[in-house]
Amino acid sequence: MSGSRTAACATVCAAAVVATLAGAATARADDTGSLTAQQISQRSRDALLGATSLHMRATGAFGGSQGGAPTTSNAPTSFDLTLDRAGNCRGSVDLGPRGSVRIVKRGHDVWLKPDAAFWKSQVPGRGAALASLVGNRYLKGTTDDPVLRDTTDVCDLDTFRQSISGATQQPATGLTKGKPAKVDGAEVIPITGTQQGRTVTLDVAATGKPYPVRISIAERGAKNPEATLRFDGFDKPVPAATPSAAQSLDISGLAGTSQAS
Q1: What is the SS3 assignment for 26?
Q2: Whole-angstrom distance, CA of residue 85 vs CA of residue 52
Q3: Residue among 235, 16, 249, 6 at smallest CA distance from 130
Q4: What ranges do the domains of the chain cover?
Q5: CA–CA separation, 61 and 9 (whole Å)
Q6: CA atoms of 240 and 237, how far apart (whole Å)
Q7: Which of 203, 244, 248, 185 minimizes the C-alpha distance to 37?
Q8: Per residue in 204-227, pLDDT tens?
C-alpha cells in the first residue's frame, strides 16, 4: 500500500530533521540553559536516541527528502504513533483526501484498519469492494506479508533511531538559542537554524532529560510552520491491547489483495 510507504517516508524525514539540527559537540552541563545552541541540540539528539519508547505526533507536509534534506509535499500528512524498540506500535496515519489508517503492532503481528477513502485511493477500481468486505474490522497479518510490510518502518523505533544516527544530509546552519518558552505546557529552550531556505526550530525540554518537545519547519520569513513534529511519553509502555478475533479479518481471506499493493 503506497499510503503506508508515504507514512514511513514522512517518519524517516522527520528523523532527518532531528539529525539536521545536531552537531558534533559533546559538552555536558547540569543546566541545559547554560549550554550553547550546538550543545543543546546534541544533548537533545542523544536523549532521543536513548529513549526506549515515545509518542510522536506529526502534522503538515512531511513528504520525503531530496539530496538528504527534508522537503514538503503538496498533500498534508499527519500521524499519531506510540512506538518502542521491541517492535510494538499503536496509532494512526492520516493522508488527507487519500484517507487514513489505524495501526496496531505487537512484535511481528500487525492490525490495519483503513477507512473507505484509503481503500479507494490505494486500490483503484477495487477499493470500494474491499472496504465493503472488510467493513469495520482490522486486517490482521504479520510483517512477513508483503501487503503489511510497509507498516514496519513507520512503526519501528529502531528504524527511526537508525535514521537519526545515520543521517548524512547537510546540517542546518546559523544555530541560535532563543529565550526560554513554553510548548504544550513544558518549559523549553528553542534552537533555530536554517536549511535550504527553510527555518527549522527545535524546542528542547529545559528541565530533566533534554528531550525534544517540538520540531517545526517553515519557509523563511513565514509566520506559520509547514510541518510540526511533537514528542512526549518517553520511556512509557505502548498500550498492549490488540483487536479481538471478532474485530479482525485475516489478510489471507482477501484473495488477490497482495497483487493490489
Answers
A1: coil
A2: 6
A3: 249
A4: 2-232
A5: 11
A6: 8
A7: 203
A8: 999 889 999 999 888 877 777 888
**Percent of the chain with pLDDT strictly greater than 90:** 34
C-alpha cell at 45: 539528539
- How large is the angle between the packed helices 2-20 and 37-50, nearest 10 degrees? 140
Is the pTM value of this prediction over 0.85?
no
Let me know: does 180 contact 187? Beta carbons within 8 Å. Answer: yes
* Segments in the chain forming alpha helices (H): 2-20, 37-50, 116-122, 127-134, 151-154, 157-166
pLDDT > 90? residue 14: no
Task: Give the integer Cα–Cα distance in Å for 164 and 198.
Answer: 19
Q: Would you identify the CATH topology of the domain 2-232?
A: outer membrane lipoprotein receptor (LolB), chain A (2.50.20)
Contact 45, 19 (CB under 8 A): yes
End-to-end CA distance of the chain: 5
> In whole angstroms, what is the distance from residue 228 CA to residue 10 CA?
11
Angstrom distance (rounded) from CA 132 to CA 135? 5
Cα–Cα dist 218/67, whole Å = 19
Residue 162: CA atoms inside 13 Å, Cβ hemisphere, count? 7
d(CA 255, CA 77): 30
Distances, alpha carbon 79 to alpha carbons 60, 162, 176, 196, 212, in Å = 10, 20, 29, 25, 17
- Measured CA to CA, the distance from residue 91 to residue 102 in angstroms comes to 6
Phi-psi region of 89 (alpha: psi -120 to 50; beta: other; left: phi over 0): beta
Q: Are 180 and 206 in contact (CB under 8 A)?
A: yes
